[in-house]
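I hope you will forgive my troubling you with a question about protein structure. You will find the record immediately after this paragraph.
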Amino acid sequence: MSGTAAATGSASCRFAHYFVVCGVDTETGLEPDDGAGEGFEQSPIRRSFKSKVLVHYPESTDKNPFNKDAINMLCMPRGLSFRTQTERLDSQFHSFTMSFDDGTRSYGFVHTFYEEVTSAQIITAMQTLFQMHHVEHHSASSASSPSSSSSTASSPSTSSMDSLVSSLDESDAESVAGLSSCLGCAGSYDPARDTLYVSKALCLLTPLPFLQAARQFLSQLHQAVTSHTAPPLPIESYIHNILYEVPLPPPGRSLRFHGVQGPIVCQRPGPGELPLGEFPLGEAFSLLGVDNMVQLITCALLETQVLLCSKDYQRLMTVAEGITTLIFPFQWQHIYLPIVSAPLHHLLEAPVPFLMGIQRREGAQRSSLHLPHEANMCFVDIDNRCVEAPEALPEFPNHAELIQELSEVLLRFGLPPQGGVTKKPDTASPHLSSLVLEDLMEDRRNGNLGGEELAVLERLQALARRCGGEKMSDAGKTLGHVFEEEEEELKAAKLNIQLREVFAGRFSAMFGRYEEFVIHSALDLDSWLSNREGTLSFDKGSFLSVQPATHLHFLSRFLETCMFSSFVDGKVISRWAEREPLQQLFDSRLERDRLYDTDEEDSRNCRYRKCTTGFESAQAVERRLLKADHTAIHPHLLDMRIGQGRHQPGYFPKLQADVLTQGQNTNKWSGRVTASRRTELKRSTATDHLGVDNEQRQKHAFARKTLHQSKLLDSSPQAVTQNHREFVDGLLSECRLKTKRMLMERMGKESVELGQGEANITGLQENTLIHGLCDLLERTWGHGLQLKQSALWSHLLHYQAAWGKNETPAESQGCSSLDQMTFEEGALLLRGSLIQDMRFIQTTSEGLSEVGQARAWIHLALEKKMLSQHLKELLTNQELLRQLYKCHAFLLCEEEREQFLFHLLSLNTVDYLCFTRVFTSISISYRVVIIPMKKLSIAMAAVDPWVCVSGELGDSGVRQITKNTQEIYFQCKNLGRLSTLQLGQENSGLLAKCLIDCVMVYNEITGHTYKFPCGRWLGKGVGDGSLERVLIGQLVSPGGEEDAGRWTGTPPELASPSQSVRAVLGSLGSRSRMLSSEVQEDMREAANNLVKHFHKSEQERGNLTVLLCGEGGLVLSLENFLLHGLKSNRLFLRNVFVWDFVEKAVVSMETADQMGDLHGATMTRGPPCDSLCHYVNAINASPRNIGKEGKFQLFVCLGIRDRLLSAWLPLLAEFPLTARTYEDGALLRDRAAVHSLSRILHTLNEFTITLETALVKGVDL
């Protein structure tokens, strides 16, 4: 293999891919960095200038082509920086990462230092710029300009993203401008007196995050350049060695290679260990504190937009990499740019989840940073230890226990859990220069010292401390410092592992049995890919049903994220292709946990258990770092011409391209190792890249819903336009998928209500989907927005203001007259235009933020089925759109905007109660209309009715209806979804009676209509003589027609037993013809519905009152059972009531007991008999006049609540009165039927039944 072939072919298994030098290009001179947003009022020495990639080696590799512009931008995000000898010239280190379209990453490590400018062209250019600035500043300061202050005052109103950087530098600019007029001050430059320095960056690009090794190599390289003593070999030898001769360490092994000043050790985890992660998590926790760090990780897991801010680039990278490392086994699927330079600040407008970091200039304030999505973003001020999380962020499961465990780990390593950098004690370090001791140190690193030798070395170190030797080693550091650095590196590595194991253990506990809920529905990969969008791959409802209630808020939202979907997709695809390495590692850890998990019950109950594998994993890392398994070839002389590689102290040499553009594979060992390990290294590199091979990635590229990451780093106008085009397409696609998911899930729930399937959604899941819709709308309205606020609410406020200016007084009066609207029978005039809904939210949502008000408005519009219509009306004001948005904004793309609204329109086919159930504390206006039978409506004149409306959240209290009217309007606290209505009348006269058809209740705010069917008489001397009815309601369409519910998309719930049902039971002859099999089947069905109700999760359960008292409920089924075969001697075949029989039975029992004639052989007085008599007498003694049907309903409800009904039924069947009252074929006289029914009722005794207040009011039992 030739040298060139070796260099490119073995790139995937080399330690480093590229070596890069960035700095000032003396040929092109100084070019101002327009993208930095800096004004000319700043001193030239404080301005940013464009940097260039001066050299990079090799030219390119096959799998990782060199992106010159992107790497230059990331190496020097602020461009060139100039200094003079009067300022600090400390070198700095930072790292960065580049994501590729296939999901892999490359890591860059940058050492930036200041080098004296020797180019006369650059010095002259800087001198000229400074003279121009001095003249302009002097003339500007001599003349007062009031216009400047007015323009400055008006500038915050624009606050667009284009002025982001200038707003950050505002305070800095003012301070510099005031001082630059005097020579010798900060920011001044006099070529006759000052020496000019410019920044230069050395960068090493590696396939894996070898942070410590790369940092040491670059630091030693810089020390060799600045040292007055020339290094043993030319700089090219060390660069050539790291690029072409140092391989990646094999998995589970460590590798020792040589830098300029000394050996460097790096290691890689083994196959069963967590992936490589060297970024110091201890530093991240120290910067933010445990509480803030957990909150930040929660935001990342829920895929909110995360923006990091710090003046130090390496802090941005440390926190960002810490987040992505700790969320194992999941992977961040969206934009990931820990360092965003000024030319890329337009990406902060991205309407998608992102994890990005920006540098804050010196003196800049948080208030000066204006962001379009600020209301829905997690903003992290690293320097001030502050995390601003979005509203309504759920807590991470077992939040307190997790905080406690993490705090204990940090305390073991001497770090305060609340954050803050700990000071190292200022102790005198030993300074030994003995060559023997240096050799011993090297043997110690390699693990070649036994116990005796180590003891000798420790005694030598102790002696050195006592002697306090001052001689420095050739590396520029004392050997004591070297020891300290090694110990700190080892300590950081062990802390990293232990913190990561804590989080990995948490995810193992939460998702330990996730495989049981993965749905494998496709026969092959192609069919699964073609039906991906319509395929359900994970049973979320079942998974949530077995989770602790405290975890549901977080988990329901996490299951909707792209990272979890991608994780599940990987599991499905593993049936046909090799599993992704991360998933394979997670699954193997789960299998291991199950193997050693003896407490099965503990694991199923999800009790918090502390991590037990952290210490073992840390020991493995320690062993590798203390004993190198392999040693790379040493740097050696290259085939360089005489005169090349000359050392010039303080200046990085001009590298010789002829020896660095290709690998001189002169060492047989290097070639042999590269060839023998190539296959293994390729495989393991893919593992560390957290992905699968390219072929598999192409098969399911859809699963990674990422933009083209390489294009994001292109700041050209064409690339920026293309990126925003992709954002627009992504928003439209997300809207289509979200609305489709909401429809599928909601219709799945409706099929359950129709008895066509099992539930696959809970109320919590529905809230989660609607929360996702709110987030989508907020991001959509924030794309291209020029103002800082809640994006959607600010648009609504501007629209409201514009509407107010155009509104005429007549229109205003017409609008207010809606409050006096009257209603026809059974019909509702819908109120609530866009403006009216806004006003309602503004008046009733005090204390809510702008984001909260926007979400309330979305919930209300969605419940009213007006969301698409309202948004369409909002977007009709084209002039306002052009004022608020930039030209690339989604809302200015007409075709996509129309499709977006069309997808939202599809949500009108289903019913939501999202506003009613979420905003429970607001006041709602209700209108109640009593509708009598039309032929007898005149009878309402003598009736003095009252109503009491009850719902999920409470009741309205008794509301008296004015005489001679049939409706009442009242306002009360939100009752939730309405369930029951008590209807009664005060007048008990013989003429005060009316046949009520139904009662309609209208929610004035949401437009919902509830129908409470009655079909019975209300009054004395008619029917069962009831003066009070408890009615069961159903939600119907706003039109109020009886059959309107079938068109709403949501089927009506079971209602009160209607008059038509009563008519069937209206004569004795019809009762005798009832089939006993049908009655028994109805009874079993009613009991079965109750059992299924209690076996569902609480969020999924329906209305228990409907199952008890509604049509087909337990009360009616039991009434039919007791009516079967009941004799009647009444004239004209009038209705008979079961309550008559129950009352007679109790009277007979009590009479027989008093007379001592209980037929002891057959009946014995006992607890069931006593309780039956007690309950019946208590119901009869109730002050409520609820009639015989109401009393029987109360009798059944109390009996089933107190677990007595199953004992009462056999008692009634055995009583002698039964034989005289029922025919021979009656079910109550059938011992088998009674025994079967008693067993069915007994199964309900295991459930705790809570009755609505409306059912048991007035009965003290």
About this structure: Residues 929 and 967 are 4 Å apart (CA to CA). The two ends are 95 Å apart (CA to CA). The chain is about 45% helix and 10% strand.
